[in-house]
Model the fold of this input.
Amino acid sequence: MDHFEAVETHGDNHVAGWVSTTDSVKLWVNVHGQGRPVFLIHGWTMSFRFWQRQLCLADRLQIITLDLRGHGQSQSILRGHTVPRYARDVHDVLCALNLTEAMLVSWSMGGTVVMDYWRQFGKDRLSALGLVETGPTPWPGNRGILIGIRGGNENVLQADLVQMKEHRTKFGTDFVNSMFLSGQAPSHALQWMLAEHLKTSTRTASAIYQDYVHRNYTGILPTITIPTLALYGRSRHMCFGASTGQFVAGSIPTSRFAILENSGHLPFYEEADQFNDTLIAFVNQLPRQ
Done:
């Protein structure tokens, strides 16, 4: 650990490579630009590519992305698929890159990874948090992450996981479509987002989801003591949406709350310019390093 193995260099502004975790799993990491580090953490069965519309911020910030273990280009491995282990992986990357005063910006399931990071490590290496379309539990109101799950019903959860295993492409198509405000992804976005979703093996997807759905970080939110940006869309077809955002922001004493009105579960993609402006304004108000 404590080593970043750069294997790709794209000019002076972008380097990519591997970080080996404390349990010897290789994670794919991209580093863009210089300045205050903003570390972007994706959601369940997604990848660093979902943050592509934030890379333009590398002219003012250092933008770091990773693929969580078993996702995207990171090592596909059957062990360690728990939220606490994912949080330790994030800490391993921060240590390997020797980053301090970083802002962790997390989306969907990635938000619980950040909440568990806070539980384990507190503000170590951090200056701020960003919680995007996420919640302390995947059961906001009566909607779950997976298509068809309602109210945290265990039998429905297991039936839905069977549907994912037996009809993975259809499941993934429905999942990607549901992330958009309209309920229908643009054709070009559906193509590449589905391809990224399918990079996560069904066994990995099932393992981390079954761990994730049984966790509840509601009690963690009031303990957060660093500036936190809570940014949400108006999700109609999937969690989390404005009501969850209001709860999250209201539970964190140091939070700022923002809603992007024309987005679903993907505000950083559907309204990238407004998302980026909101993020930059928040970062610019943070205490200087």
